[in-house]
């Protein structure tokens, strides 16, 4: 039987289960969406009961295989979402959506009490984001649903609930707590005082190191299980494992998030106002990050372009980078994410010209966002993963925006899953880490210089 680790990778849209061998190759996978349901207010939310069944059935399937020996299990999942369990370990409430509207009066009451000096967002490295500040979800329950709050034994962030299903061991993970929750005091490296004063600390199980495991018995099999990780922190682990020189990672998708594990300066008020925050990586160190809604903006604008020029929405995939065309276009003096939305499309003679302008505008905004977390650090390389890493215009323009740095398109197959496996490597895998976890392609402003693996 081939030794493997099972990784549950729980996204908002797709739920995935992988088997990964000792060389960090994915040898088996299954995935599928689960339909959302509604909470008691009619707001959409994850069907936690269906998710529970999907996890249990998937693990039962892989543990019953004669081809693979599952030595360990771990999980990566989206953050800012609590599963609330009662004293019997049963789910006690809906898995409330982090986009659920937050009551304005209650939020004001919270900040009147705990942000009198105006420094709470800075101390907790959390922009004010409503329900995306998952600590405020628990504050809402205490004050608006006190009976439910009183029945809760544990509030488990989603990755830790998945781990709980495997082990029966309730724990808290620092990567989940350290992700814009407003729960963690980054200056003192402990929970913020308001968490204790509100009685919320009693609902949070003990902290469990992200690289530690507990023994588990599942379907008659003995194995070890990690405590689960927040997906953004998990995706960073292959890069931390592969590179020691300072770097920044731009993780691109709907959101483009620049992560700099080598920026140890406290968040400033100006950075918070520009959508900067800090994550805690799996070793507990802060990672300064800047967010930009660039993938969403790109999607909106290519639909606008398609309608105007009478082409398919994905026509941009056929557009080749043209440096001569770039030189004829205007670069925005005041970068803004929605700069292109205000440009009349009648100004452009072709789709190609308009798309080059769109990407020029987006990368100008990206440069500003990324620079926020590069300042005063020794970063020499930028890695780009996700959708934009496969967009030649984005990559060439980004290389031109940072001519003093090496800019790479990087790829790790299923980075969040691989990261969750790497976090507990020493507990299930006696082999040394492979040297080709990350594939890199170096970009220059005018072309690709080389392809490498590192």
Automatic annotation (TrEMBL):
Residues 5-222 form the Carbohydrate kinase FGGY N-terminal domain. Signal peptide: none annotated. This is Sugar (Pentulose or hexulose) kinase. The lineage of its organism: Bacteria, Pseudomonadati, Bacteroidota, Chitinophagia, Chitinophagales. GO terms for cellular component: cytosol. GO terms for molecular function: D-xylulokinase activity. Belongs to the FGGY kinase family. Keywords: Kinase, Transferase. Pfam families: FGGY_C_2, FGGY_N. Residues 245-426 form the Carbohydrate kinase FGGY C-terminal domain. One of its GO terms (biological process) is xylulose metabolic process. It comes from Chitinophaga japonensis.
């Amino acid at each position: 039987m081939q030794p493997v680790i099972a990784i549950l990778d729980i996204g908002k849209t797709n739920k995935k289960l992988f088997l990964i061998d000792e060389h960090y190759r994915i040898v088996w996978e299954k995935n599928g969406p689960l339909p959302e349901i509604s909470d008691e207010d009619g707001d959409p939310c994850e069907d936690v009961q269906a998710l529970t069944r999907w996890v249990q059935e998937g693990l039962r399937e892989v543990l019953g295989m004669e081809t693979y020996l599952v030595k360990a299990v771990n999980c990566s999942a989206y953050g800012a979402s609590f599963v609330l369990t009662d004293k019997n370990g049963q789910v006690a409430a809906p898995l409330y959506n982090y986009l659920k509207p937050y009551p304005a009066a209650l939020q004001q009451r919270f900040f009147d009490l705990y942000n009198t000096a105006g420094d709470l967002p800075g101390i907790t490295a959390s922009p004010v984001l409503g329900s995306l500040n998952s600590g405020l979800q628990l504050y809402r329950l205490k004050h608006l649903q006190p009976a439910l709050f009183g029945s809760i034994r544990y509030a488990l962030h989603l990755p830790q609930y998945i781990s709980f299903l495997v082990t029966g061991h309730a724990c808290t993970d620092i990567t989940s707590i350290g992700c814009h929750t407003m729960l963690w005091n980054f200056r003192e490296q402990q929970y913020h005082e308001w968490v204790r004063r509100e009685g919320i600390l009693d609902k949070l199980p003990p902290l469990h190191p992200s690289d530690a495991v507990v023994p588990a018995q599942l379907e008659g099999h003995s194995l070890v299980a990690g405590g689960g990780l927040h997906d953004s922190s998990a995706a960073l682990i292959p890069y931390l494992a592969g590179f020691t020189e300072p770097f920044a990672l731009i993780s691109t998708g709907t959101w483009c998030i620049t992560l700099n594990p080598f920026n140890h300066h406290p968040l400033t008020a100006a950075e918070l106002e520009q959508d900067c925050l800090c994550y805690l990586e799996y070793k507990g160190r802060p990672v300064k990050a800047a967010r930009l809604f660039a993938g969403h903006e790109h999607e909106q604008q290519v639909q606008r372009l398609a309608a105007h020029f009478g082409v398919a929405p994905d026509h941009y995939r056929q557009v080749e980078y043209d440096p001569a065309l770039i030189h004829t276009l205007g670069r925005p003096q005041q970068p803004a994410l929605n700069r292109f939305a205000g440009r009349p499309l009648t100004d452009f003679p072709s789709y190609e010209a308009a798309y080059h302008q769109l990407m020029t505008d987006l990368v100008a905004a990206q440069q500003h966002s990324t620079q926020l977390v590069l300042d005063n650090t020794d970063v020499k390389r930028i890695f780009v993963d996700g959708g934009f890493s496969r967009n030649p215009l984005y990559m060439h323009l980004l290389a031109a925006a940072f001519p003093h740095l090496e800019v790479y398109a990087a790829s790790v197959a299923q980075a969040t899953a691989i990261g969750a496996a790497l976090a507990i490597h020493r507990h299930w895998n006696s082999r040394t880490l492979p040297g080709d976890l990350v594939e890199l392609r170096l970009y220059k402003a005018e072309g690709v210089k080389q392809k490498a693996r590192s």
